[in-house]
Design a protein that fits this description.
By secondary structure, the protein is of the alpha+beta class. The chain has 15 helices and eight strands.
Length: 409
C-alpha cells in the first residue's frame, strides 16, 4: 500500500490542533471574562443605581471641587489618600473620588500587588456621600484582572495571557486556511456557511467550531490584536509605527509647578480655580477627570473626555498647583495617528468606539471565542478516543468524512 503524502492542510491542521490544546484553557478564561466585562458599566449602573446616581436640584450649581474632595477624604479616612476624581456633565451622576496605591511589586497575585483601590461617590450639589466602593471586593474588578493577568501580578500573569492571545491569532489564521473550501460548489458553500442543526451531535459540534469560527474571524482578530498592545511592548511599537509612519516617539514636554518661596495658601483653593478654568476651556467635555499633584513639582492635570464612556477622544490641560496658572494644553487633534490609535485601543477592544452596536458585536465575538476551545477540544476528543471499536468499513467511512471536512472537498 502506497503511503499518501501529507499535504499543506494536514500540517496546518496539526499546528492548529497542538496550539489549541496548549492555549485553550487560557483562551477560554480570557474570552469568557472579556464577554462578561463588556457591559460592566450598564450592569453596574443598574445594580448600584442609588450609589452612582443622584436627583439633581432645580439649581444645578455644584459645590466647589475642593469642598467635595475634603468630604470624600474625610469619608475615606486619613490612611488612604485620594489622588483623582471624575466629574460628569450628566446632571444626575454622582461624582467619583478614587484612591489607589500599589502594594508589593513582587507579589504573586493581583491582590498582593495592590495596597488599596477604593472610591467614594458624592452628590456634587450637597456634598453628601452616596456610597463607597472597595474595588478589591468588586465583582467586575475580579473579572477584569482575571482577564488581564489571570489574577496574577501583572509581570507574571500578563505574559501568559499575551502569549496565549498570540497563539490564538495564529489559530484564527490557520483555522481560516482549514475552513477554506477546495471547491466552491453548492455543497461546500452550504457546509462552510451553515450549521446543520438536524445532524448528530458530532456534526453539530464540528459546525459550531468551523462555521462560527469563520463568522467571528474579523472581530476576534481585532479583539486579540488590541489585547496584545498591552501585553507586548514590541507589538505596541509596531502598531504605533504602522499608524504614525514614524519610528520616532512623540516629544514629551515636562510640565512642572513652581512653588514660591515661603508659600502660604490663601484665598480660593487653586484646585477650584483650575477646575473652573478647565470647564470654560473644554465646554464640549462629557466628563472631567482631575488628577491631583502627587509631588511638590507636579501640576494639576485635568482631562476632558468627549463621550460618556470612551477614553480616546480627550484633551489634556495642566495647571500650576500653587497659583492655578494655566501651563499647557494638548488637544486630541494635535496627536499623531499612532498616539490616537494607541489611546483608542481600550475603546476598540471592548467595542465602545462604535457605541452600543460595537459592544454587542464584541460581546458576541468574545462569547464565540470562548466556545472555540471547547468545541475544538470535543472535535479532537471524539476523533482520538472512540467509545468502541467500529467495523473497518465504518472506520473508513468516518476517515473519509474527516478528510473531506479538513480539506474542503
Amino acid at each position: 500500500m502506497v503511503k499518501k503524502k501529507k499535504n499543506f492542510k494536514y500540517w496546518i491542521g496539526r499546528i492548529h490542533l497542538w496550539l489549541g490544546l496548549s492555549s485553550g484553557l487560557v483562551v477560554l478564561i480570557v474570552s469568557l471574562t472579556g464577554c462578561i466585562f463588556v457591559f460592566q458599566k450598564e450592569i453596574s449602573e443598574l445594580v448600584y443605581r442609588d450609589k452612582l446616581f443622584v436627583t439633581p436640584p432645580a439649581n444645578t450649581q455644584t459645590l466647589p471641587v475642593s469642598t467635595l474632595l475634603k468630604n470624600a477624604q474625610a469619608a475615606m479616612g486619613d490612611s488612604i489618600v485620594i489622588r483623582n476624581f471624575t466629574a460628569y456633565k450628566q446632571p444626575d451622576k454622582a461624582w467619583e473620588f478614587m484612591a489607589f496605591k500599589g502594594g508589593d511589586p513582587k507579589a504573586l497575585t493581583f491582590y498582593g500587588s495592590v495596597a488599596y483601590y477604593q472610591s467614594v461617590h458624592l452628590n456634587p450639589y450637597t456634598g453628601a456621600i452616596t456610597g463607597k466602593t472597595d474595588y478589591m471586593k468588586e465583582f467586575f474588578i475580579t473579572v477584569k484582572y482575571l482577564h488581564w493577568s489571570l489574577l496574577l501580578n501583572t509581570p507574571y500573569g500578563q505574559p501568559i495571557v499575551g502569549y496565549a492571545t498570540l497563539i490564538f491569532v495564529v489559530m484564527l489564521i490557520s483555522g481560516m486556511i482549514l475552513w477554506w473550501p477546495k471547491k466552491w460548489n453548492r455543497a461546500n458553500r452550504q457546509k462552510s456557511f451553515r450549521i446543520k442543526w438536524n445532524a448528530n451531535f458530532k456534526r453539530k459540534n464540528y459546525d459550531l467550531h468551523n462555521v462560527l469560527g469563520f463568522y467571528t474571524l474579523i472581530p476576534a482578530l481585532l479583539i486579540a490584536l488590541t489585547g496584545m498592545v498591552w501585553a507586548f511592548k514590541w507589538w505596541q511599537a509596531t502598531v504605533y509605527v504602522a499608524a504614525s509612519g514614524s519610528t520616532k516617539a512623540p516629544e514629551q514636554v515636562k510640565v512642572v509647578s513652581a512653588k514660591p518661596e515661603n508659600f502660604t495658601p490663601t484665598g480660593t483653593d487653586p484646585l477650584d480655580i483650575a477646575y473652573t478654568d478647565a470647564l470654560k476651556r473644554m465646554p464640549d467635555a462629557d466628563r472631567i477627570a482631575v488628577l491631583s499633584p502627587a509631588t511638590p513639582e507636579a501640576p494639576i492635570r485635568i482631562n476632558g473626555y468627549r463621550g460618556k464612556e470612551t477614553y480616546h477622544d480627550r484633551d489634556e490641560l495642566f495647571f500650576d498647583q500653587y497659583s492655578a496658572q494655566f501651563l499647557k494644553r494638548r488637544n486630541d487633534a494635535e496627536k499623531n495617528a499612532g498616539e490616537q490609535l494607541i489611546e483608542a485601543n481600550y475603546d476598540i477592544h471592548i467595542g465602545a468606539i462604535a457605541g452600543l452596536p460595537g459592544k454587542i458585536l464584541a460581546f458576541l465575538a468574545s462569547l464565540i471565542c470562548a466556545s472555540l476551545p471547547v468545541t475544538g477540544f470535543m472535535v479532537w476528543w471524539g476523533r482520538k478516543f472512540k467509545e468502541k471499536k467500529k467495523r473497518p468499513s465504518a472506520v473508513a467511512g468516518e476517515a473519509k468524512l474527516f478528510i473531506e471536512e479538513a480539506v474542503g472537498v
